[in-house]
Amino acid sequence: GGGAFQGWAGGYPEIVKENELFERYYRELGIVPAGEWDAFMAALREPLPATLRITGYRSHAKGILHCLKEKYFKELQDLEVDGQKVEMPQSLSWYPEELAWHTNLSRKILRKSPLLEKFHQFLVSETECGNISRQEAVSMIPPLLLNVNPHHKILDMCAAPGSKTAQLIEMLHADMNVPFPKGFVIANDVDNKRCYLLVHQAKRLNSPCIMVVNHDASSIPNLQIDVDGRKEILFYDRILCDVPCSGDGTMRKNIDVWKKWTTQNSLQLHGLQLRIATRGVEQLAEGGRMVYSTCSLNPIENEAVIASLLEKSQGALELADVSSELPGLKRMPGITKWKVMLKDGQWFEEWKDVPSNRQTQIRPTMFPVKDEEKLKAMNLERGFFVAVLIKKSPMPWNKRQPKVHQKLPQRTGDAEVTANSDNGSECVTEEQTLVENEESKKMQELQNSDTEQSKKEGVCGPPPSKKMKLFGFKEDPFVFLPEDDPLFLPIQKFYALDPSFPKMNLLTRTQEGKKRQLYMVSKELRNVLLNNSEKMKVINTGIKVWSRNSDGEQFGCAFRLAQEGIYTLYPFIHARIINVCIEDVKILLTQENPFLSKFSSETQKKVKDMAMGSIVLKYDPDPEKPDDLQCPIVLCGWQGKTSLRAFVPKNERLHYLRMMGVEVFKAKRKEEESESKTEEEVQRSLAQTEEGMDVEDKEHDLVTKMEAEIGEESSHSPVESSAMEVENKMEDLDQSSDNANSHVNQESKDTDTSNVKG
């Protein structure tokens, strides 16, 4: 389970941290202030501190912070290992509300003390259930500078492995009382395999407002949405453009860079970076904000890309001054002068100096702008290198914001693409539009007949193979539940769902046969799904809210509640809710299948007249008992004839128990194997897999292997694990979850109580 924390420093093979060309190049460019070069190089040779971020998505974030500070950090305060005082974790001064921390504790030290091992297990477990994210400090900056609000439509262009995406999702859910924020995140990655890492990261946050798609960011298609019965192009309020880069700013973590660094990497990536950034600003709404970021020091990948983008925008874009944002963050201004160097060490100061045989390697957009006035107006010093761009008007090559179906699509191989200019920008002019209008109308009618049929059926499948070739794993379709589906009525009745419940947003992943799982998306994502099935390759979307329970019909409903969707569903449920006290919650989470007699008399009274089946268990904090857990908890459970149990994944159980002060650490050392009876019960209970939960745990193990290989922010390295294989295994596991129903049904009937622990 420690895969997510592989980066807790130490254990690297010896690599000589020297690169003469690197030093020559950056000394000449003067990216480091005079007198600081030696300190700069010394810092690059130091190991990177491990950093973590407490996810601000839930009201539980404050609870976790309190637990960290008051319990774990206090225990470490006077701790000595091998005669040395352990260095305390420090909060990042510029990150809001003390929700990000860094530590120099290495894995070697973590193994030397039971208290440190306990702290490490806490970090790993909380990471697995999405309450803590292992993320580099610099990686946290771009999402913060996007300045996201819950109503924003957001595109994350190069999103895998997904720690920044997770930050964006958290920002959408700033108000936990709003189950469906109006905004959403569309997270894209070009690598099909890495998309599954993205799904795994996003799933930890249980949001109905995230969609993972698989496209080349430099040509990501324009999406359409329905606005009052009229089709319009979707423009994003916020775009994160964290492009593939040479990564020479990551030398402290990726030490291979020391021996592999050459200027060639930047020269090869510049064109792609510019195309991706150009595509981003094309899809940005007027007044919207796009953050362009790299983990590279090289101006060819940074200032040169932004300068070229600003120059061709002709005033449509502005580089924003964000120097007053994130107070406490140390930063240096972007540079305005630089030269271009080939890997053989040859320098060029201007494009006119480049010989013709080198003009494929070096491009004019790599050089600084010579016009001093233009250069001054660009304010390149505002990038550092995260550059925040504001779109003030449409792009000059697209002076009118494009309307849908203005252009006749052209066939290119298997993909349906629109006519693009050399730099990947959309070229739509008034003249073109007038000429093509008649043909477009005919084409539109043909396209609409297919799309409308698909919309009527509520199906958003993968694009047909004749339209777009699918690479990697072929996804199941997304099928929205028809309004009159008989499946929904018993669910509505059983849980007394509020009339405002948006049932149109329910979907399944199968067109035929029994619907085993029901998922939910926000109204806005439903709009995107239904209007773009022909052009968009969706890898995953929707949060699981109900799972079929094969014997459930005898209790009035064939579907039980799923824990991952309970915070989204809870505001709409008016029946089958049992309010429980903190002692009841402890029993539910530490005992496998407790008898009703173990619970408080109030709980027993509430359960007495309730039919068997799926239930909601709700804990509300008591402000008059400040020592008790002060954040609300909603759990899914099952009521049998004489017992009550919770259906909560292992790590989520551990999380809640820690928040309540219950000791759940199990030391690995033999001399510390004598736990108390309560601890044994906790561990035994957690080893028992609930219906469907075994699927998620095994799925996590499979994806963790991929995570460990890729590393947290190793921006764009190839993945060797087969995501197809992972997804196929996940599907097999998912099908096996039906077999797990038998133990639920056995428990609910209470035909054999010999296995009941307690």
TrEMBL record:
It is found in: Nucleus; Secreted, Extracellular exosome. It catalyses: cytidine(50) in tRNA + S-adenosyl-L-methionine = 5-methylcytidine(50) in tRNA + S-adenosyl-L-homocysteine + H(+); cytidine(34) in tRNA precursor + S-adenosyl-L-methionine = 5-methylcytidine(34) in tRNA precursor + S-adenosyl-L-homocysteine + H(+); a cytidine in mRNA + S-adenosyl-L-methionine = a 5-methylcytidine in mRNA + S-adenosyl-L-homocysteine + H(+); cytidine(48) in tRNA + S-adenosyl-L-methionine = 5-methylcytidine(48) in tRNA + S-adenosyl-L-homocysteine + H(+). One of its GO terms (cellular component) is cytoplasm. The active site is at C295. Residues 40-392 form the SAM-dependent MTase RsmB/NOP-type domain. Residues 418-435, 736-745 have a biased composition (Polar residues). Keywords: Methyltransferase, Nucleus, RNA-binding, S-adenosyl-L-methionine, Transferase, tRNA processing, tRNA-binding. Pfam families: Methyltr_RsmB-F, Pre-PUA_NSUN2, PUA_NSUN2. Residues 397-462, 668-758 are annotated as: Disordered. Its EC number is 2.1.1.203. Residues 668-683, 695-708 have a biased composition (Basic and acidic residues). Its main location: nucleus. It is an enzyme of class 2 (transferase). The keyword tRNA processing applies. The keyword tRNA-binding applies. Belongs to the class I-like SAM-binding methyltransferase superfamily. RsmB/NOP family. This is tRNA (cytosine(34)-C(5))-methyltransferase. It comes from Ardeotis kori. The lineage of its organism: Eukaryota, Metazoa, Chordata, Craniata, Vertebrata. The gene is Nsun2.
